[in-house]
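To illustrate the input format used throughout this study, we show a single complete record. The first block contains the structure-token representation of the backbone; no residue identities are included at this stage. The design step must infer an amino acid for every position from geometry alone.
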């Protein structure tokens, strides 16, 4: 598998307490990671275009974004990888803003913890398999009264 890692600086939100370049450099030592970079605002349109460019240029098969909460931008990144031709589920996110930069001020410790979270996301992604798409026209639901009633 060929994995790309994108570490977001989020302005100084993350970069103020985490050495994002060091996290990206360490990510290059992880199994299957062939591309890693640090970017100012990965969720921005240019940031998403950078992800899409890297997927194409480096023939990436999976993407990890280390940034803010998945609740905030996971759909954004899933759409970005899908636009580049990857299955949207070949993407993982490491929350290094809320779980690292917002809770500690020790830059060295924060950088190490951020790298660990990226390592875990990469390890998880290595075992992901894109789900098969199945078209179901009729489905019997146990709650139906007879086989002539179907939930679509």
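Output of the design step:
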């Amino acid at each position: 598998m060929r994995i790309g890692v994108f570490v977001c600086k989020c302005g100084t939100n993350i970069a103020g307490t985490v050495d994002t370049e060091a996290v990206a450099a360490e990510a290059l030592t992880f199994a299957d990671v062939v591309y890693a970079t640090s970017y100012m605002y990965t969720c921005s349109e240019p940031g998403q275009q950078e992800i899409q460019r890297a997927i194409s240029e480096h023939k990436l098969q999976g993407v990890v974004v280390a940034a803010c909460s998945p609740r905030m931008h996971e759909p954004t990144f899933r759409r970005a990888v899908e636009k580049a031709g990857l299955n949207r589920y070949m993407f993982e996110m490491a929350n290094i803003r809320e779980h690292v930069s917002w809770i500690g001020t020790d830059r060295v410790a924060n950088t190490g913890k951020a790298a660990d979270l990226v390592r875990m996301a990469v390890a998880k992604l290595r075992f992901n398999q894109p789900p098969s798409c199945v078209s179901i026209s009729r489905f019997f639901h146990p709650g139906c009264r007879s086989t002539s009633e179907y939930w679509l």
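Structural context for interpreting the output: Residues 3-126 form a domain with the Rossmann fold fold (CATH 3.40.50). Residues 107-127 form the longest helix (21 residues).
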